[in-house]
């Protein structure tokens, strides 16, 4: 749906005219007409086959044995629409690749291809394995190929990404393993404050053992990620499976969708929404996680807050919008379902038909934890959550919900928390209020259907 090859020639009209020519200038019976139709179809097939192959080229043709980086650059700069990174007797070993203003390319990785970062060639902190800037109509068809960097040698910085997209449009990426980067597996942003990438579709990606995040989105519109895995991120903070983190109030996170994705065994949270840079006059966020699974995220050694999902916002002028977790499963975690310091007037968060089971195993954090944004100054209202058919199950004695205020009374109220929760827990209490009077709650109407959980 994204792509129009730059050299495409449509032959239907020419074939139709040829067929009419045969009919007009030949005295044909019905059997002859059938033969003409067959002839024209065969001619069309041969012509189109030759056309398709004339638009593609194997990248090794540009000099695999001599300089693989140069071969890849020359192929991108060629007139060919389709580039085939073909399997050779050894991996492709390349320097940092930067492609600027490239249009209308399909890059096909043959099955079994490995693309490796050349050792000691990524000296600059911003060197990415594959970087696309101001590019449009690009397809990366992986066929299970591996993009591998040398994380162990990147002792400084956090920007040596596997794939980075800067102010790109209409990008499709599928079936790649991206590992061992010095930054993120995939990074998406604009180029200057307020710019953004748009129409990005990602399918069947495995991002594993990357240094900073499995994936980061800074500024983008209409991004969809399907059937992908973000795991084993470790090396520098934050260390999340995916981090949505704008750099300025002019950035945007619009129509961001994750479907059937897995976030597991990451050093920090599986999902982190770090939205402090967006403000009330920023464009509202719209973010959905559907049918996603979060498992065993956050290590004790990570100094960031421990939770499977972390939700952040500007303290006093938070961005508006909506975040939906739909039919998601959170399981087998030492920590809680989510941690938040966002105020009730920030973006609204809904958990719909979600289940959190075997969580809170460390018995240090409750299943849901709300904390006042500032302990020393201000007057805040925490909340803005709706739970529709949420199930929470754990066996430790921590409360289901903790609200933490301050001794200086900077938490004015807890507001706009609604819905229904099925709670399977033997904890002595459901709610815990620290330095806050629950009498100040405003529109906190959550129906709890509670049953004691049994250890298996």
Architecture blueprint of SSEs:
Blueprint: H1 12-25, H2 30-54, E1 56-58, H3 68-76, E2 82-85, E3 92-94, E4 97-100, E5 103-109, E6 114-117, E7 130-133, E8 136-148, E9 163-166, E10 169-179, E11 184-189, E12 197-208, E13 213-217, E14 220-226, E15 229-231, E16 240-244, E17 253-259, E18 262-264, E19 271-275, E20 285-290, E21 293-295, E22 309-313, E23 321-326, E24 329-331, E25 338-340, E26 348-352, E27 355-357, E28 368-371, E29 380-393, E30 401-404, E31 411-424, E32 431-434, E33 442-451
Parallel strand pairs: 1-2, 2-5, 3-6, 4-7, 5-8, 6-8, 7-9, 8-10, 9-11, 10-12, 11-13, 12-14, 12-15, 13-16, 14-17, 15-18, 16-19, 17-20, 18-21, 19-22, 20-23, 21-24, 22-25, 23-26, 24-27, 25-28, 26-29, 27-29, 28-30, 29-31, 30-32, 31-33
Helix pairs in contact: 1-2
């Amino acid at each position: 749906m994204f792509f129009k090859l730059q050299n495409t020639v449509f032959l239907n009209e020419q074939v139709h005219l040829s067929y009419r020519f045969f009919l007009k200038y030949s005295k044909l019976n019905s059997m002859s007409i059938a033969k003409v139709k067959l002839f024209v179809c065969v001619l069309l097939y041969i012509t189109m086959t030759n056309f398709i192959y004339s638009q593609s080229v194997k990248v090794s043709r540009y000099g695999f044995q001599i300089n693989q980086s140069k071969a890849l650059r020359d192929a991108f700069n060629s007139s060919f629409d389709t580039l085939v990174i073909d399997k050779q007797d050894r991996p492709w070993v390349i320097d940092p690749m930067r492609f600027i203003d490239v249009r209308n390319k399909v890059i096909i990785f043959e099955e079994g291809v490995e693309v490796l970062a050349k050792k000691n060639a990524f000296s600059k902190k911003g060197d990415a394995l594959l970087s696309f800037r101001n590019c449009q109509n690009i397809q990366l068809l992986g066929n299970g190929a591996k993009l591998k960097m040398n994380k162990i040698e990147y002792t400084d910085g956090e920007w040596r990404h596997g794939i980075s997209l800067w102010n790109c449009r209409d990008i499709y990426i599928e079936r790649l393993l991206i590992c061992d980067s010095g930054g993120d597996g995939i990074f998406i942003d604009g180029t200057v404050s307020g710019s953004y990438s748009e129409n990005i579709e990602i399918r069947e990606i495995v991002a594993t053992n990357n240094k900073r995040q499995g994936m980061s989105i800074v500024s983008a519109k209409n991004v969809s990620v399907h059937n992908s895995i973000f795991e084993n991120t470790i090396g520098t903070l934050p260390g999340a499976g995916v981090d949505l983190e704008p750099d300025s109030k002019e950035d945007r996170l619009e129509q961001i969708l994750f479907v059937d994705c897995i976030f597991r065994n990451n050093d920090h949270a599986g999902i982190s929404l770090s939205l402090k840079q967006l403000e009330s006059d920023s464009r509202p966020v719209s973010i959905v996680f559907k049918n996603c699974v979060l498992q065993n995220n956050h290590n004790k050694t990570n100094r960031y807050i421990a939770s499977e999902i972390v939700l952040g916002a500007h303290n006093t002028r938070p961005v508006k919008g909506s975040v939906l977790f739909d039919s998601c499963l959170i399981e087998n975690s030492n920590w809680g379902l989510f941690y938040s310091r966002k105020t009730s007037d920030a973006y609204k968060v809904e958990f719909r038909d979600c289940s959190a089971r075997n969580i809170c195993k460390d018995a240090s954090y409750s299943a849901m934890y709300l904390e006042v944004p500032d302990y020393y100054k201000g007057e805040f209202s925490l909340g803005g959550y709706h739970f529709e058919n949420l199930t929470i199950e754990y066996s430790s004695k921590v409360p289901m919900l903790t609200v933490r205020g301050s001794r200086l009374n900077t938490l004015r109220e807890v507001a706009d928390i609604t819905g229904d929760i099925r709670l399977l827990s033997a904890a002595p209490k459901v709610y815990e209020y620290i330095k806050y009077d629950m009498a100040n709650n405003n529109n906190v109407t959550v129906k709890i259907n509670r049953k004691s959980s049994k250890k298996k």
